[in-house]
């Protein structure tokens, strides 16, 4: 027996899988009024803190680029204003009673930006491209629960055995290995958007590197962009099936790393959206243009634990973890609504389906600031490594990252005499590449998952994960995470206990990561712009249904 989920019934049917997520915690000083008439010109200008990288959705990794991906490429489902998955390119899905078989029906009016029909084969091609180990896609793990996907990713099975098929142009079938309540949320993320094989192959190596070599399935198209450029333009996609809901006709974007520059542009009406942090938050919090919301994100210090290096020493990692006052970091340095975090998983990511308890509450706190413990672990480390050590902390070159890095540097050097921290700043995209190349000692990093599945965070430290940049390897950790995703996946009590044990091993016993804070996002936004959505997963903001209000 199968059940059908269409646009309206999906809202009720999907609520149960979003337990613990709720609505984005967003507040604004804007007055809430009924939708007024539109301004004659629906054009705005916005900024992002870093350049875009690749727009090949199977390769996109950073949040800046992903924000634009969500505007350009729509998949089977999409996220609504409450971060609930609703039908996108697929207008309905049949799900088997055992939760293993998904039969998606592609809407008849789904078109590429060139006017050609989007078909089920476009999803087959894109998903196989993502999973195929020859392509080295870091996000291939997203489909690990699709039948045979993980084995294919690890080179143990052929790509032809992936549990997806297209019986017709309008029918896309997926077979899962285990029931996955968050699956519809997962496929609402742009990583799993379709790609047209004949177009992609015709572009060759040029696909995704500039706006001239892309085909779009989402509400907007892209112009005036190539890799490393600091500006771009979104244009309304007239071929989009739901184009009548898209009111903005043009969005000019630019990279602005210095927040005070962006703020000046905003206050001189040359910019309609600017992200702010730190001292600027209390300074502008009373303005009508101020918008804030809590992120489901973890910002942390990651260690390169390569054998033979100082940071392979567990005591040294623990000393660093205990030496940082996260309360002071959140209150005195960030001062933007961010909260101290003492675990891998941020608050409000996921709740136990049986007890309704949030995982962060259930798992507890680890490695809280403790100067005495820091000094004790430092003495143990010095016994093996010597009295004086120098390490380099890799950070992005935006204002916020530099402030956090300077605080971390001062805390470590003040509390651990003899340990010197040098700060290396690089453009954000260079930082990401340095981490992928394992060319770092410590790095200031952040992670926001693709959905509300806890595995999206634990994947960072699985020994075979493409995201395991710091070479962490613990067989017991791997065993617990695997059990949580497979044998214990249908028992939330067992699953939560598996993940709790894994988190304790990772953070407390091995000190593989130093969680720092759960971030908040703050913006100055033209108060005449209405309808912006802030999703729990993936992007900074979404303009699909935004509009500029007239006078």
From TrEMBL:
What processes in GO biological process is this protein linked to?
A: peptide transport
PROSITE patterns per the UniProt record, alphabetical: PROKAR_LIPOPROTEIN (PS51257)
Cited InterPro entries: Peptide/Ni-bd, SBP_5, SBP_5_dom
Looking at the record, the residues that make up the Solute-binding protein family domain are: 84-466
Q: Which UniProt keywords apply?
A: Peptide transport, Protein transport, Signal, Transport
Query: Which Pfam families is this protein grouped with?
Result: SBP_bac_5
The cellular component terms of Gene Ontology attached to this UniProt record, alphabetical and capped at eight, are: ATP-binding cassette (ABC) transporter complex; outer membrane-bounded periplasmic space
Write the signal peptide boundaries: 1-22
A GO molecular-function descriptor: peptide transmembrane transporter activity
The source's superkingdom equals Bacteria
* SUPFAM superfamilies in the cross-refs: Periplasmic binding protein-like II
Where does it localize? Answer: Cell envelope
**Family assignment from sequence similarity:** Belongs to the bacterial solute-binding protein 5 family.
Which protein are we looking at? Peptide ABC transporter substrate-binding protein
Tell me what organism the protein belongs to: Vagococcus entomophilus
């Amino acid at each position: 027996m199968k059940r059908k989920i269409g646009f309206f019934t999906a809202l009720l049917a999907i609520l149960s899988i979003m337990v613990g997520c709720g609505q984005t915690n967003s507040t604004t000083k804007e007055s809430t009024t009924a939708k007024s008439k539109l301004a004659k010109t629906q054009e705005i200008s916005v900024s992002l803190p870093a350049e875009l990288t690749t727009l090949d959705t199977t390769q996109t990794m950073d949040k800046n680029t992903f924000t634009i991906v969500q505007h350009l490429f729509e998949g089977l489902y999409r996220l609504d204003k409450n971060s609930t998955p609703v039908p996108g390119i697929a207008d309905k899905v049949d799900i088997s009673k055992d939760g293993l078989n998904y039969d998606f029906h592609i809407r008849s009016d789904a078109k590429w930006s060139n006017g050609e029909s989007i078909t089920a084969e476009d999803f087959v091609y894109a998903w196989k491209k993502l999973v195929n180990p020859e392509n080295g896609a870091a996000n291939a793990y997203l489909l690990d629960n699709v039948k045979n996907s993980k084995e294919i990713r690890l080179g143990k099975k052929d790509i032809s055995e992936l549990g997806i098929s297209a019986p017709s142009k309008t029918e896309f079938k997926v077979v899962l290995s285990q029931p996955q309540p968050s699956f519809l949320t997962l496929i609402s993320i742009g990583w799993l958007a379709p790609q047209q094989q004949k177009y992609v192959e015709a572009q060759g190596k040029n696909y995704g590197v500039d706006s001239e070599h892309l085909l779009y399935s989402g509400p907007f198209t892209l112009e005036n962009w190539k890799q490393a450029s600091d500006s771009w333009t979104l244009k309304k996609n007239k071929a989009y099936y739901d184009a009548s809901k898209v009111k903005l006709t043009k969005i000019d974007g630019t990279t602005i790393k210095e927040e005070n520059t962006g703020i000046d542009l905003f206050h001189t009406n040359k910019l309609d959206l600017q992200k702010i942090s730190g001292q600027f938050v209390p300074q502008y919090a009373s303005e009508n243009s101020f918008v804030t919301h809590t992120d489901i994100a973890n910002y942390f210090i990651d260690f390169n634990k390569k054998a033979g290096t100082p940071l392979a020493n567990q005591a040294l990692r623990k000393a660093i973890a205990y030496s940082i006052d996260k309360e002071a970091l959140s209150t005195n340095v960030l001062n933007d609504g961010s909260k101290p975090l003492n675990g891998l998983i941020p608050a409000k990511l996921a709740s136990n389906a049986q007890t309704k308890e949030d995982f962060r509450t259930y798992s507890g706190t680890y490695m809280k600031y403790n100067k005495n413990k820091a000094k004790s672990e430092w003495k143990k480390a010095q016994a093996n490594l010597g009295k004086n050590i120098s390490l380099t902390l890799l950070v992005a070159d935006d204002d916020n990252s530099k402030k956090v890095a300077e605080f971390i540097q001062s805390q470590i050097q003040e509390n651990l005499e003899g340990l010197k921290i040098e700060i290396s700043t690089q453009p954000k995209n260079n930082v990401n590449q340095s981490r992928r190349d394992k060319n770092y000692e410590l790095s200031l990093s952040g992670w926001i998952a693709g959905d509300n599945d806890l595995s999206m965070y634990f994947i960072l430290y699985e020994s075979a994960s493409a995201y395991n940049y710091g070479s962490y390897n613990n067989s017991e950790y791997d065993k617990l995470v695997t059990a949580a995703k497979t044998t214990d996946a249908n028992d939330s009590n067992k699953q939560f206990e598996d993940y709790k044990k894994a988190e304790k091993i990772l953070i407390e016993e091995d000190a593989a990561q130093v969680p720092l804070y759960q971030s908040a996002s703050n913006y100055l936004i033209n108060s005449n712009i209405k309808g912006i959505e802030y999703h729990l997963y993936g992007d900074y903001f979404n303009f699909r249904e935004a509009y500029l209000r007239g006078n």
